[in-house]
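Homework help board

Subject: predicted structure for assignment chain

Our instructor gave us this sequence and asked us to write out the predicted structure in token form, then describe one feature. I got the tokens but I'm not sure how to describe them. Can anyone check?
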Amino acid sequence: MTHTVTLPLWLFILIVLFAAVTALSHFLLPSVRWFFRRRFERAVERLNSRLKRPIQPFKLARRYDMIQRLIYDPEVSQEIALYAEKNNVPENVAFQKAREYAREIVPSFSAFAYFSFAMRVAKVLAESVYRIRTATQNDEVFAAIPENATPVFVMNHRSNMDYVLVTYLASKTSTLSYAVGEWARVWPLSSLIRMWGAYFIRRRSRGGLYRKVLSRYVQMATSGGDTQAFYPEGGLSLTGRLQPPKVGLLSYLVDGFDVAGPRDIVFVPVAINYDRVLEDRVLLAAHARGDRRFGARISVVVAFIARKFWKRLRGQDTRFGTAAVAFGAPVSLRDYGKVEDVEELSLELMRRIEAVMPVLGVPLVATVLRAQGPADSATLEIAVGALLAEIPQRSVVLDSGDLASEVSEACRHMAQHGLIERRGETWHIMQGQETATDFYANSIAHYLPRGYGSGDLAGDAAVAE
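My token output:
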């Protein structure tokens, strides 16, 4: 016992390191974790005092705990057994597959990353690209949602800026959990998106086990009060009109809803419109090809953002007109009653989005020029005023009291975008830009009589039809 043992220096250092790690993990690290956890909880309490809808405990749970809860859920366990039987594999192999799906889906929300970083980036980016306007009813609609209900924002999808815009506008009231597709599963974007509370979905997956893991996560998050946001169209509009809705995520929410449970689900229709959609050329090219392959590269996006920030720092106006958000009449799932047809519910939500679609200067001018042909500024102003008389005032977010200025700004933005040009005193649609002009006119076409201003894209049926 008292004999001397000779060891190589490298082995001695390794033993000391292992001993130090063991001591830290058993004695020091638990105390350190407790100290930072307490500071984090106090910070969240202060943050919740400023939010209209506080961050729920479900969202603050450790990612590992959420994954464990998800894969040991009784419904997931039953699906694991079915998967093993169907594919003739051991249940532990099927269980590992479910774990992989859960790890892929479940986010790792960080309140610090969300409010200290994501919100600031969203605010700067949104305000550097657009003038932001909101409908007068938005605060009233959101305030009327009961505290014991989970809001679910159901939005039309015009641009990838939708994520930035709605996240920025919701930052003073709550946090949002988005369902994002495969486009965001690239490093380091994927890590940031997870910290911001978004969860990944495979839009083309048809496996029963994957769908069960995804549906149970969505249902757990909703029952836990985590505010959700999703796009029922499933992708960006290629024509400017609303697209027929898909019912995947909506069906998960309906199937997991307990009418007698303590928490209601309130769907909030959200209509988004722009004077300029950043990806419009890419979307129009995809529509012309008849596919949904978007050729935009991440390097182009990064370069665009960098140029905008640089111009903004130099005091230049970098904005592309107005971006507007309007909330429609909410739908309480408890008051709606038993959902016999999820497709009918999805169509009703899309109709409510259409009913409050923001009306902006560029869509109005585009509609007039496509319907009536070239016009001078005075004629455009009169025609736009006549159009506004056909549109519910609840949906008008431009300043109708200063119509001349609004029309002038719309023409300026369209000219900068290469859609129209001025010949003498008359505005003309540039040759070859008729389809692009229709893209903007189509966003408000459902407000107008059938056939008004119909063009290359106007023949696509609206959802309300």
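Reply (TA_rk): Your tokens look well-formed. For the description, you could write something like this. The chain has two domains: 103-355, 361-447. That's the kind of observation they're looking for.
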